[in-house]
Amino acid sequence: MKQLPYLKNEDGLTTLYVDGAPYIALSGEIHNSSSSSLEYMKTKVWPNLRGLHLNTVIVPVFWELMEPVQGQYDFALVDGIIEQAREEGVRLILLWFGLWKNGRSTYAPSWIKKDYQSYFRARYPGGAASDTISPLCDAAVEADATAFHSLMKHLKDIDGEEQTVIMMQIENEIGFLGAERDYSDKANKQFEEVIPSGLAALYSNNGNWKEVFGEAAAENFMAYHYACAIEKIAKSGSKAYPLPMFVNAWLEQYPWKAGTYPSGGPIAKVMKIWKHAAPTICLYAPDIYLPNFAEVCEEYTADGNPLFIPEARRDMVSATNVFYAIGKHNALCFAPFGIEDFLATATNEDGPDFGIMMALNIDMSAFILNGTGPYLAESYRLLGNMMGIINRYRGTGKMTGFLQHHNSGCLLTFSKYDVKLTYKRQEDGKPVSGGLIIEVNEDEFLFAGIGFSVEFLPKSGETDKIGYIQIEEGEFMNDQWIRGRVLNGDEAAYMISIGRKPAALKVEMYKYN
Ligand SMILES: CCCCCCCCN[C@H]1[C@H](O)[C@@H](O)[C@@H](O)[C@H]1CO
């Protein structure tokens, strides 16, 4: 069998290999319900994706539709989606909507939902039942693992050679909403017991959850049990077909209380427990809807976790954030959510109205499409044509990224020059400023991004004068620089800059005295 897609960590840099070559997913995630109808995909989704220069699409598959009757599997949707993706020439990352979706068990088959004796619910303080099946319910986890195993076996049979599907996300935004932990009888009993020996060793401390973790006990308890459940499901699927498997996280946010965001989900502060209990999971992926993009990227790459963003904001910032995620943090994937809307001419009447966000008084700006499509398409076209160069400079220290976030610019240091970047003043409906820079050699630089100007400065204390040999606008075609105008005149003599549209510049400098 052909080498499967895999992740490799080389001196701290994690690379995704597809067909044996480095791969960065310029992607988008479709709405939750779009892939539940092949006709809808054919008429309302794929046509709207063609102009976006995606190389990968993130698509849900549904337990309830795949195993409507226990033990009877229907793979028609999965097969159809893969067929369509092959026609479109894109790769797929599949989301397994099994036991848990946004903290709830809305995608479990009816035979699971209705039998809440066997598949018991997580409960709220006082004992009221929730619509979340408890992660401590071994029977439910077993049933999910069996179904996921069947899906992975089927994928191996129908896609093992072509490998249209390159990765799997297990469940979606796991965790318990509405309370900081499950108050089912089994959970209450276990919460009073000493923590598992493995955790005691990991934290070189022992006692029950409260004694060891204090205030964080409830959330860590849920993190441990969700991670154990996910490990069972991932392992069973991996036995059949070991594609790279990851989990995504609904991020901690105001009012910062576990249960107002899914408690126990794979957020940065419990990643240590998740990594301990779920070794089959290859990475932890933040769904970044909050405005502090750079901060979240920093947080999620802190201890060697590769940056992988399966869900990003829908507003204009995404057209710039992709350059920063790839340039600064060597991201493996960037995927705005509800991607089929981005170039859709007619506003998608039958798309979700995100009412739930209002209900959760969540800032809606992350979900407002404000003309993002054409800018994101241009960002992806530009980046897509320079993937070879980006993969060559990833992790070398010669490539970095920069992003406007309530600041007017930044100063970057390279081997022979310092580079002062000044951001264009923020304008509504226009992309924020940001991009990536590659020090091709000590005198030659590539810039790609939106809305900034560049000034080369001597290293501190140096007296040499600095001049430019050539400033070229242009773009890449299959990693070959296609020069446009040479901007040695007014266009750049006073300020080398990139405008409000995604663009690239190649600049050669020199020193004299
Ligand atoms: C500004 C703060 C936004 C907080 C985000 C909350 C949850 C976000 N959930 C996401 C799920 O992963 C997707 O399936 C979908 O439901 C998506 C929201 O539409």
Automatic annotation (TrEMBL):
One protein family per Pfam: Glyco_hydro_35
Annotated DUF5597 domain residues: 376-498
Organism of this sequence: Paenibacillus prosopidis
Gene Ontology MF term list: hydrolase activity, hydrolyzing O-glycosyl compounds
Descriptive protein name: Beta-galactosidase GanA
Recorded family membership: Belongs to the glycosyl hydrolase 35 family.
Domain Glycoside hydrolase 35 catalytic: 16-223
GO biological process, one term: carbohydrate metabolic process
Xref: InterPro entries: DUF5597, GH, Gly_Hdrlase_35_cat, Glycoside_Hdrlase_35
